[in-house]
Specification:
The protein is an alpha/beta fold. The chain has 18 helices and 27 strands. The strands form six sheets. It has a seven-stranded mixed beta sheet, with helices on both faces. It has a seven-stranded antiparallel beta sheet with strand order 20-21-24-25-26-19-27. The protein has a five-stranded mixed beta sheet with strand order 11-10-12-13-14, with helices on both faces. Helix 2 crosses helix 3, helix 7 packs across helix 13 and helix 10 packs parallel to helix 11. The structure holds 1,6-di-O-phosphono-alpha-D-glucopyranose.
C-alpha cells in the first residue's frame, strides 16, 4: 500500500520563501505529507526525476527527510541526492542541483527563524536552475493543498543517511553525499585562495559566528582547513537541532556576542555571522558594522578585484526595500540595476537571462549567479578577497566608498508578533489614504509621491502586486512599509528608512540620528506606536 487518503489543511500557503510554520504544526499527522504531495503534483510529478534533499539540521529535519524520501520513491523518482545527515546549506543545495543537473530540490529550513520542537520548521522547493520556485509554482502548490485527497508513501524502513554512498528505496536510488566538499570546491573557483591564505599567514584575524547552525562545517573547512585561519576562528561551529537556543539571525540584535567582540577594544580585524541555513550574512570590521544595503554596494564597486568577476558585472539587482546605494555604483559602472520585490526568487529570472551577476537585499542577503540562492559564506569570501586586494581595513573601505558615492543612511525597524488583524487594519488604512499624501508635510518633510509597489518581471512578464508601501519625501528620503512573509506568529511589520547624504560633510552620523526626522514623520503618518501600543521596534538593523 503506497496510497493514503488525506484531507486538506488550511494555511499551507508558501510565504516569501517556502512554507514556514511552528515545528509542531509540521509534525501533525499528514501535514508534511500533504504539502510534499501537493508540491510533487504541482510540478508535474517526479516520475523518473532526480531531486536534491537536505536542510539546516534543525529539529524534525531528519524525520522529515525520511518521509520525503519514501514519498519520492512512491511517486516514482529515479534518484534523490541527500546531504550526509540530511545536512545541506541552502546555497550548497542550490549548487548541487545545478552541478548534478537535478530536476529540483527540497530544502528543509525555516532559515533565520529559531529551531526546536517548540520553534519553527520550513520546507521549500527549488527548481532545476537551483533557485526557489517562482510565484506561479508556489501558487499552484497552494491550490493543490486545498483539494488534495491522497498522497503516496512507500512503507519501508528508514534509510541510513549517516554514511556517504548509495542505497535503494524501492526502485529509487538514494545517494548520500558529503555536504561540504562540492560547495568549498566551487568557492575555490571564484576567489583568490592564494591571496587569502597569505592574508591569514600575515596575521589577519577573523571571527566567524556560525550560530550553532549549518555553516559551521562549511566555515571550518574553508577558513580553517583550506585558508589556514587559526583553529577557533569559527565559533558556534557545530549545527544543533535547536541552534543551542540561539536565534540564528545574523543581525546586531541576535548576533550580539559577535557584535560585542567586534566593538570591543581588542576585536579581530574582521567579523561575520550567518543564519540557520547559511544564505544570510552580517559583515563587521573592528569597531564597524556594515549595513547589508551598503555591503552589496561595496561588493559591486569592487567586484573586479575578485577573480570570478574580473571580467566585469553584467548588471545588479536589489529588492525594493533595499537602499539605493548599489544604484549609484551601477550608474558609475554603466550597468543596469533592477528593483524587485522582497524574495530571492525574483532574482532567478534575471540571472538566468544573463542580465545580472550580483544581487542583494537589506535582509542580510547577498549573492551572485554562481548559484541561485543568496550565499552567506560567498559574501564573507567576497569581503575577504576585496580586503586582501585593497590592503585596507573594513572601516577604510567604507569611508572611501561613502566619499566616492555619498551615503544612503539606512535602517529597518521590525515590530514582531503584532495581532494580524491590527497590522492589516493599520496598513489597510494607509492604503486608503495613500493617494492623499502627496504635498502634505510631516516633521518638516513633504511627501513627493506615495504608492504600493508592483513588479512586472522583465523576463517573463509576470506581475506581482501589493509588494509594499512607498512614501517618498522631497530631497530623496523615503520610508517603505510591508508585512513580513516569513514569520510564523502574528504579523511582523517591517519599516525601512532611508536618507541620502551626498557628502563630503555629514557622512559619519549615527544612522538612527540621521534618520530621526523620517522615523518621526512615519509615526505621524502611520501611527505605529499609537495603534499598537508598542514603545519602539523589537529589532533594529
Ligand atoms: C527570505 C527571502 C528573502 C527575504 C527575507 C525576508 O530570506 O529569501 O528574499 O528578503 O526572507 O523576507 P520577509 O521580509 O518577507 O520576512 P530567508 O533568509 O528567510 O530565506
Amino acid at each position: 500500500m503506497t496510497t493514503h487518503p488525506t484531507t486538506p489543511f488550511d494555511g499551507q500557503k508558501p510565504g516569501t520563501s517556502g512554507l514556514r510554520k511552528k515545528t509542531k504544526v509540521f509534525m501533525q499527522p499528514n501535514f508534511l505529507e500533504n504539502f510534499v504531495q501537493a508540491t510533487f503534483d504541482a510540478i508535474g510529478g517526479v516520475t523518473g526525476k532526480t531531486l536534491v534533499l537536505g536542510g539546516d539540521g534543525r529539529y524534525f529535519g531528519d524525520a522529515a527527510s525520511q518521509v520525503i524520501l519514501k514519498m519520492a520513491a512512491a511517486n516514482g523518482a529515479a534518484r534523490v541526492i541527500v546531504g550526509q545527515g540530511a545536512w545541506l546549506s541552502t546555497p550548497a543545495a542550490s549548487n548541487l542541483i545545478r552541478q548534478r543537473g537535478a530536476d529540483g530540490g527540497v530544502i528543509l529550513s525555516a532559515s533565520h527563524n529559531p529551531g526546536g520542537e517548540t520553534e519553527d520548521f520550513g520546507l521549500k522547493y527549488n527548481m532545476s536552475n537551483g533557485g526557489p520556485a517562482p510565484e506561479a509554482v508556489t501558487e499552484a502548490i497552494f491550490a493543490r493543498t486545498k483539494v488534495i485527497t491522497e498522497f503516496h508513501k512507500l512503507d519501508a524502513p528508514d534509510v541510513n543517511l549517516e554514511m556517504v554512498g548509495e542505497s535503494h528505496l524501492g526502485a529509487m536510488t538514494v545517494e548520500v553525499v558529503d555536504p561540504v566538499c562540492d560547495y568549498a570546491d566551487l568557492m575555490e573557483t571564484i576567489f583568490d585562495f592564494k591571496a587569502l591564505r597569505g592574508l591569514f599567514h600575515e596575521g589577519f584575524t577573523m571571527r566567524m559566528d556560525s550560530m550553532c547552525a549549518i555553516t559551521g562545517p562549511y566555515a571550518v573547512e574553508i577558513f580553517e582547513n583550506r585558508l589556514g585561519a587559526p583553529k577557533g576562528t569559527v565559533v558556534h561551529e557545530t549545527p544543533l537541532p535547536d541552534f543551542g537556543g540561539m536565534h540564528p539571525d545574523p543581525n546586531p540584535t541576535w548576533a550580539h556576542e559577535l557584535m560585542a567582540e567586534m566593538m570591543g577594544d581588542n576585536g579581530p580585524d574582521f567579523g561575520a555571522a550567518s543564519d540557520g541555513d547559511g544564505d544570510r550574512n552580517m559583515i563587521l570590521g573592528r569597531g564597524i558594522y556594515v549595513s547589508p544595503s551598503d555591503s552589496i554596494a561595496v561588493l559591486a564597486a569592487n567586484a573586479q578585484l575578485v577573480p570570478g568577476y574580473a571580467g566585469g558585472l553584467k548588471g545588479v539587482a536589489r529588492s525594493m526595500p533595499t537602499s539605493a546605494a548599489v544604484d549609484r555604483v551601477a550608474a558609475a559602472l554603466g550597468i543596469d540595476c533592477y528593483e524587485t520585490p522582497t524574495g530571492w526568487k525574483f532574482f532567478g529570472n534575471l540571472m538566468d537571462a544573463g542580465r545580472v551577476s550580483l544581487c542583494g537585499e537589506e535582509s542580510f542577503g547577498t549573492g551572485s549567479d554562481h548559484v541561485r540562492e543568496k550565499d552567506g559564506l560567498w559574501a564573507v569570501l567576497m569581503w575577504l578577497n576585496i580586503i586582501a586586494a585593497r590592503g585596507q581595513s573594513v572601516a577604510e573601505i567604507m569611508a572611501d566608498h561613502f566619499v566616492r558615492f555619498g551615503r544612503n543612511y539606512y535602517s529597518r525597524h521590525d515590530y514582531e508578533a503584532l495581532p494580524t488583524e491590527q497590522a492589516n487594519a493599520m496598513l489597510g488604512d494607509l492604503r486608503a489614504r495613500l493617494d492623499t499624501l502627496k504635498g502634505t508635510s510631516y516633521q518638516g518633510l513633504t511627501v513627493e509621491s506615495s504608492d504600493e509597489f508592483s513588479y512586472t518581471d522583465p523576463v517573463d512578464g509576470s506581475v506581482s502586486a501589493q509588494q509594499g508601501f512607498r512614501i517618498l519625501f522631497e530631497g530623496g528620503s523615503r520610508v517603505v512599509l510591508r508585512l513580513s512573509g516569513t514569520g510564523t506568529e502574528g504579523a511582523t511589520l517591517r519599516v525601512y528608512l532611508e536618507r541620502y547624504v551626498p557628502g563630503p560633510d555629514g557622512l559619519g552620523e549615527d544612522p538612527q540620528t540621521a534618520l530621526a526626522p523620517i522615523i518621526a514623520a512615519t509615526e505621524e503618518i502611520v501611527g505605529i506606536s499609537a495603534r499598537t501600543g508598542r514603545q519602539g521596534p523589537d529589532v533594529i538593523t
